[in-house]
Amino acid sequence: MISGIRATCALFLLVFLMFCLGLGMAAAQAAPPADSNAVDEMPSATTVPPEAQPSANFSVDAATDAYMARIPASARTRSDAYFEGGYWLILWDFLYGAVIALVLLNLRWSAAMRNLAERITRFKPLQTFIYWFEYSVITFVLGAPLAIYEGYTRERQYGLATQTFGPWAWDQTKGLMIGIVLGGILAMLLFGIVRRLPRTWWIWGAIVTSLFMVFSVMIVPVFIVPIFNKVTRLDDPKVTAPILSLARANGIPAKDVWEMDASKQTTRMSANVSGFGQTMRVTLNDNLLRRGSPEEIQAVMGHEMGHYVLNHIYKGMLFFSVLIVVSFGLLRWSLGWCLQRWGERWQIRGVGDTAVVPLVILLISVLGFVGTPLLNTDSRITEHEADMFGLNASRQPDGFAQGAIHLGEYRKMHPGPVEEYIFFDHPSGYNRIHDAMTWKKENLQLFAPQAGGKSGGSGATP
């Protein structure tokens, strides 16, 4: 069985490399240059449309429609197609992962990997780590075709990726290595619990997994992000002074603003307030710095600071801790049922056998797939709260609207309500602009009437 696994992995590796070369060349030819067609580009300057200028007859709907009209039709069509394609990828990711898990179980590859680990060492924790290493590498190879299409080829086709195949593949390899180390540590802890506490393993497993999640949140901004991107202190006072002032005004203990060189991988604009305690950082990527107006940057950072001030990190960890407990409870029942029915066929000795990992991943993926609307709704509500905080903190509704337009480069701007409920983990671009214009209408006294043209902080007068 071991020799069969090695031969099959070699075959998949060969197919994988051929697939990479073919897709890499096709994507390089299909990807449009960044400035190839100016009419398709989203506007970068925050220019307030006449309908959005403050006046006694200010209309939220008219102002929203005016901002929406600034998006080129071709760009709108492209972003809609990209985002709607993601709906199908949710399904294909689930099905593809399920097939891989069933292959490992039904062909008894998982049992063979366990047997190999047991032949290498008698030390149980090390056996678990070796198995996890085998599992990670094999699923990485088997999952490569879909991962390449989804993460590289498709991103290049829609003009969202800036990497060639080599750097992209190296980033994926680094992610694999990080997953092997961190996942291996968690696997050793969980299987140790299962073996020592066979009756209450699901309770203690949920607790350990939740604590591990907290640990991961703490180390990501300082230790994980720099593995993929260069993070440097931003020294431009024209950018940092308003951001740090906004932070201080909202009780955020930030002394520096950090910049990440995301442009080496993507054209997407983003920012975040990540970590907590001593690892808390205010970070914006260089795409936002290069393309965003001062009003837009302040609005985006106000949103990100809202996550911090509203304790979304802690609330999110609490929410996922509850989900983890529920998931472990369901695992306790579903694993027992599956192993009783198919365990002998798969050569899995019990819940404490590392060969059970593909089954665990399959069952968790089923829960995640079914729970997609719930997870998206929780995230969408949280993002809406941060939107409203950011508007109140930054007082930049027009910069916020411009930010929503830029996010519309890869998100559908105006979905139907059911579509938004199921598939959107953020409010749609249309609703975000509408919220910004609603806020502006309710705060017209903060804005000096303008004849039009480029906004100067939206004309806000504190």
Give the mean pLDDT.
87
H/I helix tally: 17
Overall outline: elongated
Low-confidence stretches: 1-40, 450-462
Q: Structural class, judged by helices and strands?
A: mainly alpha
- Major beta sheet, strand line-up: 2-3-5-4
Biggest sheet layout: 4 strands, mixed
What percent of residues adopt helix (DSSP H or I)? 55-70%
**Number of E-state strands:** 6
| Beta-strand residue percentage | under 5%
- Cα radius of gyration in angstroms: 25 Å
Q: Give the N-to-C terminal Cα separation.
A: 73 Å
H-E order: HEHHHHHHHEHEEEHHHHHHHHE
Q: What this model shows, in words?
A:
32% of the residues are buried. The model is unreliable at 1-40 and 450-462 (pLDDT under 50). Helix 11 (294-309) crosses helix 14 (372-394), helix 11 packs across helix 15 and helix 14 packs parallel to helix 17. The protein has helices at 2-30, 60-69, 73-106, 109-120, 124-142, 144-157, 165-196, 201-228, 237-249, 286-291, 294-309, 312-346, 357-370, 372-394, 397-407, 417-423, 429-442; strands at residues 47-48, 231-233, 258-260, 271-274, 281-285, 453-454. The strands form two sheets. A four-stranded mixed beta sheet has the order 2-3-5-4. It has a two-stranded antiparallel sheet with strand order 1-6. With 462 residues, it is mainly α. It is built from 17 helices and six strands. Strand 4 (271-274) and strand 5 form a beta hairpin. 69% of the residues lie in helices and 4% in strands.
